[in-house]
Amino acid sequence: MKLIIAIIQDEDAGEVISNLNKANFQVTRLATKGGFLRAGNTTLLTGVEDDKVEEAMGIIEENSKSRTQYATLPSSCGAMHGFILAPIEVNIGGATVFVVDVEQFKKF
Amino acid sequence: MKLIIAIIQDEDAGEVISNLNKANFQVTRLATKGGFLRAGNTTLLTGVEDDKVEEAMGIIEENSKSRTQYATLPSSCGAMHGFILAPIEVNIGGATVFVVDVEQFKKF
Amino acid sequence: MKLIIAIIQDEDAGEVISNLNKANFQVTRLATKGGFLRAGNTTLLTGVEDDKVEEAMGIIEENSKSRTQYATLPSSCGAMHGFILAPIEVNIGGATVFVVDVEQFKKF
Ligand code: NI
Ligand code: NI
Ligand code: NI
């Protein structure tokens, strides 16, 4: 048994959790204190059998990895200024994941 | 030294924590993000000496294990409808507990 | 790779986190549920290379260790009562720190 501790962006939490659940992984979501750090981190805990670690890690990676998105300002804004605004690149997502060995696992 | 990470129901947290404290275990209660998951999970962290793990696990089990309760609707409701409402079974409690080895433990 | 789990006082969190960050340690701050426990605990998670554990532990100790402070009531209060109030000793700070081995560490 392993415990996966995944620190992901808030905006990715819904997708990561629902996809882990679909694959029968139970997830606990810890609240992260706002204000001090990069806003919007979420810490997930999920206990997995040794031979399921790679599957769970794959689901976390797929739904949270760092990626580039193109954002555009509202077209009304560009229209107001009389030109089209070019989309801007923004980096979103990203995860830090720890896998820890579990000596004893119990469900009561 | 071991670290016990226990995910329990909110409604059991008071009893679990006060009974752990009475047995001289210090407990930290982490807030769980609302909304996404089964409402009302709490994550407890407690560091215990190797030979105290079973004692702490017993206290957690005793005060959080999954159990059936009978709930009745308010009798005024039954009276209004002119019959007695049968009690309904509800499942409450339940815990998921991980024990992890601690390599170094310090108090400053 | 090790995972440091540090339970510190809220009032020390700012200093501990900013000094860990200055030394290039990334920190996640978990919210602690209010009401039940000593008010104002914060749990920090930080993943560190094996040979950086002592450095990180030193920063945590330096910025959170239990210490005595002298507090005085507002002088207006003493003045009102016609005497000088002696400063009182208060204990602040204090940390409980666990170091756990990490089997797998990934950044996505
Ligand atoms: Ni504009
Ligand atoms: Ni009714
Ligand atoms: Ni006074």
TrEMBL record, chains A, B, C:
SUPFAM superfamilies linked: GlnB-like (SSF54913)
Membrane spanning stretches: none
InterPro entries noted in UniProt: CdAMP_rec, N-reg_PII-like_a/b, N-reg_PII/ATP_PRibTrfase_C
PANTHER family listed in its UniProt record: CYCLIC DI-AMP RECEPTOR A
Name listed for the protein in its UniProt record: Uncharacterized protein YaaQ
